[in-house]
Amino acid sequence: MLLFFLVALGASVVGAVCGIGGGVIIKPVLDLLHLESVSTISFLSGCTVLSMSCYSVIKSLLAGEKRVSLKTGTPLALGAALGGLVGNQLFGLVRGLSDNPDRVGAVQAACLAVITVGTLLYTRNKARIASYRVTNKGVCVLIGLALGCMSSFLGIGGGPINLVVLYFFFSMDTKTAAANSLYIIFFSQLCSLLTTLLTSSVPEFRWPVLVLMAAGGLGGGVLGRQLNRRMQGEAVEKLFMALMVVIICISVFNTWRYAAG
Q: CA neighbours within 13 Å on the CB side: how many for 233?
């Protein structure tokens, strides 16, 4: 039980600092440890990320911080919420196509590995890549839709792809992108959870584990927010890239293990 809490806490601290939600760490790590089924891990990861992002977003708004751009962030968040619905249905479809849950895990792990490699390459070279400042609300909704769909299907809450999109399409700096990413993650995860509840597709889980992980997510949000305020943008970016390398290695291994199983 304690292991679930520690994974949720550690992942949420880093997730709050970097703006990646924490699910991108929780999902592959719990897959690696093989403590629960693929569906249960996705559900627990999403709930943990929701508790962390809820705290971070509400605290930021109450503090009057200006990092979240409501003009672009809100259409992105609304699009992500709709994308969460699509991603949730897509996960159910893929799960229904196979009697072997390990195959679903292999697909998720492989997709995460590819996305994380692309994210790492972009982050390392973003200074040499032209970026844009999208302001059209319709385009923002479509971008958010794609983000929400991917994050919900992979069970990672948002993850590194959010930051790449915010860098490339909106020319945000590291800390501003982190704040806006958490704002998007909150809406996409909330909508994904509500869909799971309304469609009665909640997988079997243990309540003590859910409570411990949600508490870890909340605690990680508190600690991560404090660390983010003290760290320079360059340090946050280095932490982010180091984390990407670790996630790639775990995801590749998980892909092999699930496929072999």
A: 8
d(CA 120, CA 240): 9
Cα–Cα dist 203/66, whole Å: 38
What is the distance between the alpha carbons of residues 180 and 87, in angstroms, rounded to a whole number?
20
**HEC states along 48-59?**
HHHHHHHHHHHH
pLDDT (tens digit per residue) in 179-197: 888 888 888 788 878 888 8
The stretches of the chain forming alpha helices (DSSP H) are 2-18, 23-33, 38-62, 70-96, 101-125, 137-154, 160-170, 174-198, 207-230, 233-260
Q: What is the pLDDT of residues 99-136, one digit of tens each?
A: 777 788 888 889 889 989 999 999 899 889 999 999 99
5: pLDDT strictly greater than 90: yes
pLDDT tens by residue, 167-177? 999 999 888 88
Q: Is the dihedral angle over the CA atoms 192, 197, 198, 200 positive or is it negative?
A: positive
